[in-house]
């Protein structure tokens, strides 16, 4: 057969193209290292810069998802260090609130149609409540099915973070599957019916 030399030549050309691209990739990687070295010499933290570059490479929805999961995981592990849950984590946890049984109202739901009076607001905590007491309150709220947004402590209060941590930690204490709030949002399968934003999950 006469196509043996042709195939060998085609293979050689492909290999050479790959080698050229690998050399270009190495040169680009060297250039990137040089930029980071310059940034470091100017006093910038290159580890943080790498994190920002990675965040800028993903879309806004995915970035919010990552930030929400990071906050939620930190809270579940008691690593908030006095900082309350961020906005996207609160929004995500509110969506993950368990559905009420038939005939029951959601703990975070507003008044039913036709109800004249709104639901009574939870009374604010005693100002002398300690972080430990705030943790106990957060765990109790999670067990009672209250949403994470029921945290009664003000922003920038370390007790708010303690309450958030206990609420999140309580989600995983049943020894069963990972709670929905700790799982990433499943990506819709390409071409699957109802796989878009409005699809049923």
From TrEMBL:
Coiled coil is among the record's keywords: yes
Region entry Disordered, spans: 94-161, 173-201
Transmembrane segments: none
GapR-like DNA-binding domain: residues covered: 7-78
InterPro entries: GapR-like (IPR018753), GapR-like_DNA-bd (IPR046367)
Gene Ontology MF terms: DNA binding
Compositionally biased spans, kind Gly residues: 192-201
Regions annotated as coiled coil: 11-38
Sorted UniProt keywords: Coiled coil
Residue spans of biased composition, Low complexity class: 130-142
Family statement drawn from the similarity comment of this UniProt entry: Belongs to the UPF0335 family.
Protein name: UPF0335 protein NX02_22020
């Amino acid at each position: 057969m006469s196509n043996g030399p042709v195939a060998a030549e085609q293979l050689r050309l492909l290999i050479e193209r790959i080698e050229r691209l690998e050399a270009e990739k190495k040169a680009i990687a060297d250039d990137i290292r040089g930029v980071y070295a310059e940034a470091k010499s100017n006093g910038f933290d290159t580890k943080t810069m790498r994190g920002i570059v990675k965040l800028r490479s993903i879309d806004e929805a995915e970035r919010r998802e990552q930030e929400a999961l990071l906050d939620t995981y930190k809270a579940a592990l008691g690593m908030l260090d006095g900082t309350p849950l961020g906005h996207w984590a609160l929004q995500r946890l509110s969506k993950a609130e368990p559905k009420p049984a038939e005939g029951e109202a959601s703990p975070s739901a507003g008044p039913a149609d036709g109800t004249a009076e709104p639901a009574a607001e939870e009374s604010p905590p005693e100002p002398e409540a300690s972080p430990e007491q705030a943790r106990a309150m957060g765990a109790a709220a999670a067990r009672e099915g209250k949403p994470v947004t029921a945290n009664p402590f003000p922003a920038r209060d370390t007790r708010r973070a303690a309450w958030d941590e206990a609420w999140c930690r309580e989600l995983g204490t049943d020894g069963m599957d990972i709670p929905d709030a700790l799982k990433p949002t499943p990506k819709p399968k390409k071409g699957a019916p109802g796989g878009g934003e409005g699809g049923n999950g």
